[in-house]
Amino acid sequence: MKNIHLSQIETSNYFSDIYSKNISFENMPWITWAVDIDLLNNVINWKFNNPLKIFEIWCWIWTESIFLSKIGHKLTSIDLSKDILKLAFMNSNIYWVNIDFKEFDITKNIENQFDLGIYDLVIDRACFHHILPENRLIYMSNVSKLLKSNWELYIRWFSDKMSPSISWDGPFRLSENDFYETFNDLFWNIKINYYKNIPAPEKNKKEQIWISFNASKI
Fold this sequence. Notes:
This protein is an alpha/beta fold. It has helices at 11-20, 37-45, 63-70, 82-94, 136-146, 176-183; strands at residues 53-57, 74-79, 100-103, 119-125, 147-158, 187-196, 209-217.
């Protein structure tokens, strides 16, 4: 694994620290309040043609949860923060969508927490690149348990082609090999795409190079 950063803390501690400081979303350059361009391309071109049962890892700013629900899909969406989940629930009500928001850490034991083997799609935008290497196989196992056979994981993270943060902390920048090393035993039919996410004009501080993977559960 190519680890650009000098420090990395537990995922739950990292997000607890962000949430506890009440950092404004407006000050985070990677948040645009727009649906990710790679997700839009998947919706437009070939994916999500029929209503799907979707499990979203880390609802975060809830934009994609609400978007996918508005176009007809059934969402279960998790996050580590009760406060974020409350805000997500409030915003889903504004848009008249019904999303099942739950507090959960995807690196913990998933047994008896959710119905397993019932989801058509698991999506993750920007959670996995916070997870420590020793927890990645737990993540992969949990994702596999959630999915129906031959259905799909769709995951996006900061690419190793993207420069590190100024403070040299925060998310890992990850490569294609990081995906294969973690998911190759239980997933196949892997498709890879590098893309530049659409920045909000007032936040266009540096280039955001993301990498996305679509892979089917064996």
